[in-house]
């Protein structure tokens, strides 16, 4: 397989993975609806950065530890699942406790750009499924004569770029419906749905086998 063939074939796989509903899309969409484009963009950038880290680590063979070590995989899985459940519970708590004033103000304080980006990075780095995806898929697209780390970074960059485009579509779609989505009842419903989804993602991750 030539370098050019590897790049476009991986792009197809990455595109399909990107548009598959998951915690990353849910996080960006929730941020766009609740806090606006800047916070959503920061969350999306954090997710892309986390994917880049996993991609480079997989190319270097570092994240292979989670494929061969049951203990390392278990620790990352438990921490990641707990973090997702924590995010989900916070969203549910915001929806259930919110007074009219707090809901009109956004339900919770608008997070800083740094906080949103950090949440995005952690959501990706604490997800062992991302590590296993790169371990399982990325080596198949590494030409034997290409520098592993550099080419792995290029593949991860393609994934990050496609994710950024998809997140932009989600954010623009949310902004188009912003008048309806900023109603207090709608925002409470969004928090309930998104929070429940994150708790579900966390529970599913907790029972994931290698």
TrEMBL record:
TM segment ranges: 6-27, 39-60, 66-89, 121-142, 148-177
A GO CC annotation given for this chain: plasma membrane
Record's bilayer topology term: Multi-pass membrane protein
Principal subcellular localization: membrane
Subcellular location: Cell membrane
MF (Gene Ontology): amino acid transmembrane transporter activity
InterPro entries the UniProt entry points to: LeuE-type (IPR001123)
Record's keyword annotation contains Transferase: no
Keywords: Cell membrane, Membrane, Transmembrane, Transmembrane helix
The protein, known as: LysE family translocator
Organism name: Microcella daejeonensis
């Amino acid at each position: 397989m030539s370098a050019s063939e590897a790049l476009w074939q991986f792009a197809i796989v990455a595109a399909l993975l990107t548009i598959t509903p998951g915690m990353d899309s849910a996080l960006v969409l929730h941020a766009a609806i609740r806090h606006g484009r800047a916070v959503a963009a920061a969350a999306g950038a954090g997710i892309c950065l986390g994917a880049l880290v996993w991609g480079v680590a997989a190319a270097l063979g570092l994240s292979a530890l989670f494929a061969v070590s049951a203990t390392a995989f278990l620790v990352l899985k438990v921490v990641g699942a707990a973090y997702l459940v924590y995010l989900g519970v916070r969203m549910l708590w915001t929806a259930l406790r919110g007074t009219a004033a707090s809901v009109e103000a956004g339900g919770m304080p608008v997070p800083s750009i740094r906080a949103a980006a950090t949440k995005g990075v952690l959501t990706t780095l604490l997800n062992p499924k991302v590590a296993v995806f790169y371990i399982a898929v990325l080596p198949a697209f590494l030409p034997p004569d290409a520098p592993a780390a550099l080419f792995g970074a290029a593949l991860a960059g393609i994934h990050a770029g496609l994710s950024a485009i998809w997140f932009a579509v989600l954010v623009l779609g949310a902004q188009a419906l912003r008048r309806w989505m900023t109603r207090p009842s709608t925002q409470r419903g969004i928090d309930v749905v998104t929070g429940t989804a994150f708790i579900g993602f966390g529970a599913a991750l907790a029972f994931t086998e290698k």
